[in-house]
Amino acid sequence: MKKICVAVTALLAAGALAFAEGSFTANDLDPSDSVTEKIEVNGFTINASKEKEIRVTAKKKTAPDGTSFTRLVDLRGKPSAGARTITFSAKAGETVVVYGNSASKTDKRNALVQTDKKKTVASIKLEPQSGAVSMGEAKITEDGTYQVVAENGGIYIYGIIVK
To answer: Are residues 46 and 54 in contact, defined by beta-carbon separation less than 8 angstroms?
Structure first.
């Protein structure tokens, strides 16, 4: 019986390592006007610096799939020196779902899903902040570290799911 339990535990652990599945939601963060260092949440890293701070803001919104959010991460512009990014691991065959909005009141902006070498895997069009939460997907073709960044201008990220 003991050998069976050990074997089952080993199989479960191997299965967990086979996929990088996980999720991040800004709901898990405390609101802050100035985040100036890395924050780790469920295997996702929100990267900020003193020079390129981000914000966590209380904002209630619901996505088209019914997912409710109470907070957002304001990336406050294009990435710089590794800051203003959200990084995570993903495996080939997985799908990354990004929930967000443009920080502009009137203009759509793009969130990019990129490899750690800054190769764009997907560009996700985000509606202005006054609109509905936008959702977009990226299909992952190779194992690695990925990041979500603003293509230009500020964007709000409510959550990211790797499935």
So the answer is: yes
